[in-house]
Write a structure and sequence with these properties.
Elements (H helix, E strand, L loop, with lengths): L4 H15 L2 H4 L15 H4 L9 E11 L3 E5 L5 H18 L3 E4 L8 E5 L19 E6 L2 E5 L3 H14 L1 E2 L6 E10 L5 E7 L7 H14 L3 E8 L2 E2 L18 H13 L3 E6 L6 H6 L28 H17 L4 E3 L8 H4 L2 H9 L5 H18 L3 E5 L17 E4 L3 H9 L3 E4 L11 H5 L13 H7 E8 L9 H5 L2 H10 L7 H17 L10 H6 L8 H12 L2 E3 L2 H7 L11 H4 L5 H8 L5 H22 L4 H8 L3 H24 L15 H17 L4 E3 L2 H9 L6
Parallel strand pairs: 2-3, 2-4, 4-6, 9-10, 9-17, 10-12, 13-14, 14-15, 15-16, 16-17
Antiparallel strand pairs: 1-8, 5-6, 5-8, 7-8, 10-11, 18-19
Protein name: beta-N-acetylhexosaminidase
Pfam family, one: Glyco_hydro_20
GO molecular function: beta-N-acetylhexosaminidase activity
Length: 723
Amino acid sequence: MILSKRSFNILFALFVTSILPSPYLLYEQTPSTVPIAKNNSTLTNISVIPYPEFIDKKNSTVTISNGFRIISKQNLTEDLQLALHRYSKYISLLTGISVTINQTFLSPRNKLIIDCPSIISKIDKYPKLGEDESYKLNITKTGSYLYSLSLTGIIRGLSTFVQLIEQHESSNTFYIPLVNIIDRPRFMWRGLLLDVSRHWMPVPVIERTLNTMELSKFNVLHLHLSDDQGFRVESIKYNLLHDRKDFFTQKDIKYLVEYARQRRIRIIPEFDIPGHTTSWFVGYPELASQSGPYQLATRWGVMKPTMDPTKENTYIFLDKFFREMTKLFPDPYFHIGGDEVEGSQWTQSPTIQQFINEHNLKNNHGLQAYFNKRIQKLLKKYGKIMIGWEEILDEIHENQTIDKDVVIQTWLRQQATANAVKNGYQVIVSNGYYLNRLLSSINYYKVDPILRNNLYLPREQQQNNILGGEACVWSEYIAANSVDSRIWPHALAIAERLWSPSSITNENFLYERLFRMNHLFDKMQTGVTHISLYKSQLQNFILDPKKKLDLLQPLIILADVCEPCGPQERSKIYTYSANTPLTTFTDVLQSESELIWKLGKLPINDELSYRDIFQTWSINHLHLRELFDNVEKTKNQKIWGQDIEQLSLNLANTGQIGLRILDYNSKKILNSDKNNTMNSWTLSYWICYHKTLLRQLENQVKEVRLAAVRPVLRLLNSIQIIP
């Protein structure tokens, strides 16, 4: 289990005073564990995300240079050696210096000493829920020291260490601030759900997602492996289940489980039943509540095909299926979905309705409760703990209550968390954490699993029953080529909310670290492509090879100030399906504009900077004009997907409005053209007019949001109307 705060403090008090060799103590002249007060994080100026629990920072640094050594006090186990090789590579990629790993204690300060006294076995076991992830990282003039009681804690500390590396602005040298960090997670379950069913995500996507999850201190990868659109795991027992082309072989699964284990991440499988099951019925229509044949769904939504819980053969089939799958996935937790059961096939079946009456189940909810109870029994047979979406608790009757060891994952209703906790169930919170909705990072950051859910219960019960949370990436409008930009950097906000103290809430400080880490993922070559391929993907929209170089920069200027809309907006515009290529302009865009965030930090009175930016925007359409003059414009628009030409015009208009606002601020004129009727308007009407116009420009082009409007609106809102 995760250590209590008292045990945690005792552990590190012992660590400081007795266990550590003298070099650790050189930095312990002042109190080493300073609790973080609310919002004091900006004072420490440590660009680490998630932010540590305790920090003590000195106003000094130590240089990290060529020949840097990582030294283990204990014999290197295979897992520790792999971890040190990963992080030595990251350090080299960030700094360009050579890094060696050995067990020789040398006097130079250019070193990181790893101390994990509990490492004794050659291979560490599979990670467990609630295992010790705490660590202490001490950066001193004589060297850096990382201590933990577990390999997991060492890896969490290494992810902090690489983020501490900074480069001097005036030279090509690198340094680390002198700092003492004592850290542990707030929640034991910090997950990321990835839907590989609606759009296929192959092994390389999972690998790079696990790489970035490790650096972000996530510890659970929840794979949504089956849905109406696809079944993505090979079954040898039932070989008509999985997709014929896009699926994980059993060898793939074993490889990914081991890949995740080395990074101290658990993989949780989800096979959604009894709804979302069309893909099961393509090969095995006898499982369905109505006769087939069935075909894979290509549209999204809640589908009618549903398993028949009244047939004994359904449970015989699932028993054999679980026996096979539980051997593939070693984690004790196993997700059965249970959400969005449409129910019409049950209602329309006289046989199923008769079963409901004979067993006193009352309605479809009672039938699903009966099904869940039997599924839970099957999973217990194979040593698994069942997880289900919040609907598995809907209208449960006393005779069909599922055991309290089931875990409820809440997603739809905020009240579902409170209800589950009150009824004694453990909970994973996903309500408010849907990354595919493409909200701002701060929206996700403000969602606290405990504080947000208004749980009027003893705090101890809340902490015991809420295991943590999961960010969810549903893939209706996300494919392998766009998934990285839909996860990162937004997921970092959730990673911090689940790891760091609830008192860490400063928005600007979050964004500074979040965008920095987004670039570190790329520099450390974790495999994510949303930054490294951004320019080349944009260049693909310029079909004339002679113009690719000339038009690329103005196209980047446009793309940098645009953001993609979420599924609610996209679903209204165009009839998407599983067969629709997600390669349009909006699919290439970053999920949140870093440039617009930086502009939001500029002082309102920095007229020179704003004028340069707005001037660039106002004339950018002239530079892009050749892209729209092409005689094959219709063909281009089909490839672009969205109306880039209108976006470009809107950016020019936004820049012109920005210049007009700056002119008012400096000259107190409403329009630079003295003959323009706008000069006869009142200031309040002029402001109202431009606010309306900017909102139109922001949302006029379908599926894309013109984020450039935000800093202009900020300037407009700063104008004071004096009566």
